[in-house]
Amino acid sequence: MAAPGEFELIRRFFERPAAAGRARLGIGDDCALLDVPGGESLAVSTDMLVEGRHFFPDVDPEALGHKALAVNLSDLAAMGARPLGFTLALALPAADEAWLEAFSRGLFALADAQGCELVGGDTTRGPLALCVTVHGTVPPALALRRDGARAGDDLWVSGALGAAALAVERRLRGEPVPAGALARLDRPEPRVALGLGLRGLARAAIDLSDGLAGDLGHVLARSSAAAGVPLGAALERGALPVAPELDALPEDRRIALALGGGDDYELLFAAPAASRPGIERLGATIGLTLARIGRIDGESGLRLVARDGAATPLDVRSFDHFR
Amino acid sequence: MAAPGEFELIRRFFERPAAAGRARLGIGDDCALLDVPGGESLAVSTDMLVEGRHFFPDVDPEALGHKALAVNLSDLAAMGARPLGFTLALALPAADEAWLEAFSRGLFALADAQGCELVGGDTTRGPLALCVTVHGTVPPALALRRDGARAGDDLWVSGALGAAALAVERRLRGEPVPAGALARLDRPEPRVALGLGLRGLARAAIDLSDGLAGDLGHVLARSSAAAGVPLGAALERGALPVAPELDALPEDRRIALALGGGDDYELLFAAPAASRPGIERLGATIGLTLARIGRIDGESGLRLVARDGAATPLDVRSFDHFR
Predict the structure, then answer these.
(1) What are phi and psi of A156, to 5 degrees?
(2) Of the candidates A162, A144, A160, which has an alpha carbon nearest to the alpha carbon of residue A206?
(3) Which of B79, B321, B322 lies nearest to residue A30, judging by beta carbons?
(4) What sign for the dihedral angle of Cα B223, B69, A77, B138?
(5) Nearest residue on chain B to A54, judged by CA atoms?
(6) Predicted confidence band of residue A316 (pLDDT cuts 50, 70, 90)
(7) For residue B293, what pLDDT band results from cuts at 50, 70 and 90?
(8) Which string of DSSP letters, residue by residue, matches B25-44?
(9) Which among B1, B31, B72 is the top mutation candidate for probing chain A, defined by the most A β-carbons within 10 Å of its own β-carbon?
């Protein structure tokens, strides 16, 4: 049997019946056509995942399919946007059918669960790289922008922090990785329902890809610029939801991983105190722990406050792919 | 001076004042926010460009910046969509400032000329790969889909064909490339104004990236499926607008390059005979040669018709990146 060509492979693994589709026109034309509900804005985010940087060469392709979409859906979640559809551009060293089958299985399982349809793509030969561009919709006045935080807002974070960073650290050292930590790294859960529920409750949000300290730094920088006043934050050390996979580590390591470790894809959000009851109800409704971890204030910079009230300044520089 | 980090590089070369912007929210948040005019659909297309496959390792980065956006704008043109904004995901082996400066210059020159704003992006270290996802808008009833061609339609093509393929061939052989042919390969002109002008005149369109024969094959396959009847096409050999850069080649080579060579990014479109005067006026208005090269008919397959009326069957298989 001849090696299947590009068009056959795309058809076999990526074209699906359009029955449930929300796209007016999907794969197979020059462009996909999507309809945006009246009064809503289109939210767009793109991510490039490269072997050796965003995933290990021996990654399970099904997990990679999940993750490639998950990290993008996480951006929609952090904007409070409802998923609409995504495009996938794929550079592959070879047309490996088993790999494509597993990858597409992981991809579509998440796409179906989140109602986000594959509407277009591009496949080429090259060093393994994946580019997903995701599209969602949100009424613009309800979008959870990074620049909306104000002094006095509570800071909240979903889920638990640090497990993905522990997995990265262990993998890089060639040490065994606890299964729970590996699952957090390989199969992050985009917090789409949380983002939708936070419309009207939160004033600003970001998803944690670079680490809490660095990502909070982005919110503070943009919100300060938008508000025209310096903004900072105090985080309560005792309130940080450190992942149970880190229980065996020394206390300082646990806090360092929770604050500096990336790849958790939880949501960090700022909300006025009046939203507390609504946020607590939301957490109960969607079955997700939401921890109130600190407060935005008018003092520049980021501080970690111990139980005795002593404040330590934190470096807000985040992980940088070019350093 | 310390090597600049990712965020600094992005800011320096890719963040621009939002003054003229059509995006509600651009670079720097989890998602960009774009507004789609009422009654219009969003048109989306994505392309991944990889070194060694889509461009030569010694490509001029300014030309690459142009081309990365041009090939995507060409997809919007082929849908009759008006450019709105684009995202860029970039994997780079190193944070090379001179490279980024030239690349962004080429990119923004075209983006500004076409009113298509950079609204989001992602930068990472890795083997050089570029993923552009472009967004445009079009009233859905006027979209130039691939599946709208019908028996009796004229077939038209813009510009001239084969020069880009000649440049590829010469480059691969290490032979000198005529300047005109190199310009066609490195700096394709997306036919956006043509696509907009063809709204209401053409019934189907595609941009020529794989070659006339193969791309026409896509139109025939989709239009046949949509019409529920077999469709084919007869092309008049004497009507094919072969690029002047091919003048010195034997006649058969010229025709082969015009029919099979990719990378021209001209538009191929099908239109009823009643549209002829409108199409001719359009070509004169935008200063672009539009050649009527054949006709869609009810006989399966693609035929090349010589001046004496003799018809030769053509293979419609297009260039395939995985063969």
Answers:
(1) -125, 155
(2) A144
(3) B79
(4) negative
(5) B124
(6) low
(7) very high
(8) B-TTSSSEEEPPPTT-EEEE
(9) B31
* Residue B208 three-state SS: coil
Classify residue B102 by its DSSP letter. Answer: H
How far is it, in rounded angstroms, from Cα B89 to Cα A89?
A: 10
Angle, helix B179-186 to helix B61-79, in steps of 10 degrees: 60
Provide the token pair at A245: 């996979």
In the prediction, which pLDDT does B21 show?
61
The ipTM value here is 0.87
- Give the start-end residues of each E strand in chain A: 32-34, 41-50, 82-92, 117-125, 129-138, 154-158, 204-207, 232-236, 267-271, 290-297, 301-305, 311-314
Cα torsion angle, B308, B309, B315, B320, sign: positive
Task: Show the tokens assigned to A43.
Answer: 């939210």
Whether the full predicted model's pTM is greater than 0.95, yes or no, is no
Cα distance between residue B130 and residue A133, in whole Å:
13
For residues A121 and B46, is the Cβ–Cβ distance under 8 A? yes
Alpha-carbon span A267 to A290, nearest angstrom: 9
Which tens digit of pLDDT belongs to each residue from A234-277? 999 999 999 999 999 999 999 999 999 889 999 999 999 999 99
Nearest one of B217, B199, B200 to B208, comparing CA atoms: B217
- How far apart CA B258 and CA B252 sit, in angstroms, is 10
Looking at beta carbons, which residues of chain A come within 8 Å of B222? Answer: 28-29
Distance CA A245, CA B149 (A): 59
Hey, is A37 helix, strand or coil? coil
SS3 assignment, position B303? strand
Task: Quickly tell me which residue has 């009046």 as its tokens.
Answer: A274
Nearest chain B residue to A77, by CA: B30
Nearest to B200 by CA among B271, B147, B252: B271
User: pLDDT tens across B195-214, in order?
Assistant: 999 999 999 999 998 899 99
Tell me which chain A residues have a C-beta less than 8 angstroms from the C-beta of B9.
Answer: 322
Domains annotated for chain A, with CATH where assigned, are 23-141 (3.30.1330.10), 145-314 (3.90.650.10)
Kindly provide the residue ranges of all beta strands, DSSP E only, lying in chain B, ordered along the sequence.
32-34, 41-50, 82-92, 117-125, 129-138, 154-158, 204-207, 232-236, 267-271, 290-297, 301-305, 311-314
**In DSSP terms, which residues pair with A134 in a beta bridge?**
A45, A86
Cβ contact A321–B75 (<8 Å): no
Averaged pLDDT score across all residues of chain B: 89
